[in-house]
Amino acid sequence: MKKQLIKKLKNTNPDQKDVLKKGFYFLIFRGIGIIAGYLFTLYITNVFGAKVNGLISLSFSVFMFASIIGRLGIDVNFLRFYAKPENWKKDPGLFYRVVSKSFLVSLVLMGVLLWAQDFFILHIFKKDQLAPYYFWSVLGIPFWTVTMLCAGALRAKGLNNWFAFFNNTGRFLLTILLLAVVYLFYTVAPVMLIQIHFWALVVLALIAFWVVSRELNQLTLKSGTNSWRFLRESFPMLLSSTIMVFLGWLDTFILGIYETDENIGIYNAALKLALVTNFSIEAINSSLAPKIASAFAEQAHEKFKGLVKFSTRINFVATAGIVAVLLIFNQFFLGIFGEEFLVGKYVLIILCSIHLLNSTTGSVGIIMQMIGRQKQYQNIALIALGLNLILNFALIPLYGIEGAAAATAISLSFWNIAGTVYLKRKENIRTYL
Q1: pLDDT, tens digit, for every residue of 248-262?
Q2: Could you give the C-alpha distances from 219 to 75, 79, 145, 163, in angstroms and in order?
């Protein structure tokens, strides 16, 4: 069996080897980020309980919604534009121009959310204890926006390790490190956790901007590309990215309306565990996207199909292994957060099962966006979001956190299956096993 595996790896073509290599490094960075995120959550749940974890999770939902809007879809469009090496060399000014515009939009968005904080805190969530968490989360929006735009540019250049660090690792790793320093000198109060998270975002944004500036090798606002047209081209990607984040956080947002802080905290602990199943597809997509875009643009059909087929197989096998471990030992993993989190068992089972099913459909979203079908992808995503919204409002009042998990599962399945059907029927691209 070992000989067969070695032979198989030797016969793997260079593009597939590169996907595996970069995906492996991505997994390492992603793993460090996940561990840091879990340590942050474990500290919250073990020291302050599910209630504080619920408040922080709820404030993060607002933070993530606003941050994705501030990005304007630019990070995805960077991937398409700067995947061509000549664009990286001849047009560095485009990066600075569009990032500046995005930062200003994020500042305005931050101001609006701060102005409207009483509306969200007192009238939507009816949780006045949420106020300090909401405030510090909203302050971090412009800095996280800059970080993600820089990560998108670095990903396009093939600097996957930097992309993985800024996209997955840096945020909670820096938060944990700063928390450790503060813990040595002060008694940490609950609200200090979200303040530390804010300062971690500021530091991360500065590091990300410095790394991209160093790679571009010049600081200029001169650009041969119309930045406003670039933003218009980014808009469909903004909608798709926004919908993806909404699908990931809408359940938490609506739980904030109907459920207690404790139940929100329990749900998000189970959700974090289930997200481990996305390890493989995130790792593969991190290096697959520019290769897919390049192969499609060059009309290298066999290369394109080979990459798609290869990525789907690897993703399914890896996801199946992770899901098996989480489902068999679900009580152990949930119990790490505390005994009160054991009731999240069925949430974890529902979410893990749906991630396994979706792994059989392949990297549908990345493929559609990289071949210029972002508008069709956006339309499918809009329907999935509408379905998710309806199901969350229908199921959460009846079934609580299990209803939220079911709503997420059904809408994500529709999204992936609909995309798979579109690619097969309209483009004759088979992404599924």
Answers
A1: 778 888 888 888 888
A2: 19, 20, 19, 20
